[in-house]
Amino acid sequence: MAVHEHPHRTSGFHLPTFRRNGSASEGDVTAADTATTTVRAYAFASLRLLTGFVFLWAFLDKTFGFGYATPSGKGWIDGGSPTKGFLSSVAAGPMESTFHDWAGAGWANWLFMLGLLGIGVALVSGVALRLAAVAGTAMMALMWIAEWPPARHLSDGTLSMSTNPFADYHLIYAVVIIALAAAGAGATWGLGKVWAKLPIVRDHTWLR
Hints:
Layout: H1 26-64, H2 84-88, H3 96-102, H4 106-125, H5 129-147, H6 169-182, H7 192-196, H8 199-203
Helix pairs in contact: 1-4, 1-6, 4-5, 5-6
């Protein structure tokens, strides 16, 4: 029996073709990508502002004693020590005695408070996020060691009440700040673009 081929059919392998109304057009894909990028930028900007406010509020409360974590009249401006209460209460970890020695020291107070202020201002304004990431990670690492989550018991034998032997909010804050710097989150709702155009920042990208 003879086989008749269609006059317009050719032999061989053919890639499938798609109808225009059966697949997303290039314009639709571009619009979707743009929308996703915009949402991501706003999400990072919101996270940056909220995280910055955490650090900035801690500085303000410890400085002026607003009656939250720092009692009224016990602020730094009133002669109180931002580090004495926390560091003197450290009761676990390999740096327990070291932190006790640092508690209330003038240099420790200044370094801690300038760190809170600098990180807070950098995050809220959206500038120098890489420097903020380095400073924030160092600060959070020291505070993690001070609380020492791996400890089951404190030095006096009581339960430490640690909820996790490794992951706590200090580590989360450190990762958040690093992620914000890596994502360039200062460009949205911030001064990141203006900061990046400064000659000294263009020549030294680690200042971004």
